[in-house]
Structures are given as structure tokens and as C-alpha cells.
Design a protein that fits this description.
It is built from 7 helices and 5 strands; from the N terminus they run ααααββββαβαα. Strands 4-3-5 form a 3-stranded mixed beta sheet, with no helix packed on it. A two-stranded antiparallel ribbon has the order 1-2. Strand 1 and strand 2 form a beta hairpin. Helix 2 crosses helix 4. The longest helix has 21 residues. It is flat.
Length: 170
């Protein structure tokens, strides 16, 4: 992670905590650092494992409370993908699209300059957009290959087990 972004994120958290007379706990900053050092989307379980790996164990309640605070500050975004809730560091990463495989659940971020330009040009009344996230559901190439192989096996089994084929062989 870019050190400049991490410093700015930590400053955003510090300013909020000071302005709202909240404690600046080492747990909050350790969780924020772990989030911004993770690659891509993560679950709370993965974040907890990362924290333990870094020898900084925190309770589940502390994780949940920190995540909710970070979402409020727009430092983290929550995604409700098909089977699970995943999170993502969002500082300077507000606008992007996701491909989600409906079979295996794999999520991939995709550049969307055309989508971005279209959304930027939409005139919204009495609403100031702050960011967007687009979900594109479909079947990934790996799953599609598996589906095609299964169909081909099924077809070949039907033709091999067809009684008409056996009569022709005689």
C-alpha cells in the first residue's frame, strides 16, 4: 500500500476521533493498517486472521465496531456479494465495477471507463453522488468450461448407452 494513502487514511481517522472526543486506541489504528495492507476484498474472518498473523489479536466486537466506524468515514466499503459480505479499503477507490460469478462466487474488479463517464454525466436532482459500485453477475470462464465439459460428457454417455446404437453394432 502507498505510504501516502495510509498516512492520509490515518489522519482522517485521527481527525474524526479528536473532533468527536473518542479515544485513539491502538486497536483501531492496527485494524485500519491491516485493512489497507490487504489486497482486494476480504471477510471479517480474513481480517481477523491477518491481525493474528501480525501478532495483534482483537476481539470480534472490536473488529465489528471498527469496521462500522470506517464505513461511516468512507474508509471502507461493504459489499453484499452472493454468498457473503466482503469489505474493501475505499480511500480513492470509490468508483469501480465487479464481475461476480454466480456459480463459484469469484469476484473480480473490472475497469469501467464507459460506465464511469456515463454516471458522471447523469444529471441527478437534489442528490450529490459520492461514488458508485456496479455488480455484473454472470459465469466466469472456468465455470463455463466445467459446464461445457459436463454437457459434452452427458451427450457422449447418452449416445454410448442408446439402445439404437447397440442394434446398429450387431
Amino acid at each position: 500500500m502507498d505510504d501516502n494513502i495510509l498516512q492520509r487514511v490515518r489522519l482522517t481517522l485521527t481527525n474524526y476521533l479528536e473532533e468527536n472526543n473518542c479515544r485513539k486506541t491502538p486497536e483501531r489504528f492496527a485494524i485500519l493498517d491491516a485493512i489497507y495492507n490487504m489486497n482486494g476484498h476480504f471477510t471479517l474472518e480474513e481480517l481477523s486472521a491477518k491481525m493474528e498473523q501480525d501478532f495483534f489479536r482483537v476481539s470480534r466486537a472490536t473488529l465489528y465496531n471498527a469496521i462500522h466506524l470506517f464505513i461511516k468515514l468512507r474508509l471502507v466499503v461493504r459489499h453484499n456479494f452472493q454468498q457473503e459480505t466482503r469489505y474493501e479499503a475505499s480511500f480513492h477507490n470509490d468508483n469501480h465495477s465487479h464481475q461476480i460469478c454466480t456459480i463459484c462466487g469469484k469476484v473480480k474488479e473490472v475497469p469501467g471507463t464507459l460506465v464511469h463517464d456515463t454516471i458522471q454525466n447523469i444529471k441527478l436532482k437534489r442528490f450529490h453522488p459520492m461514488g458508485y459500485s456496479l455488480y455484473i453477475y454472470g459465469v466466469c470462464s472456468s465455470c463455463q468450461t466445467k459446464i461445457n465439459r459436463a454437457k459434452n460428457r452427458k451427450k457422449s454417455n447418452k449416445t454410448n448407452n442408446n439402445p439404437k446404437n447397440e442394434q446398429r453394432k450387431s
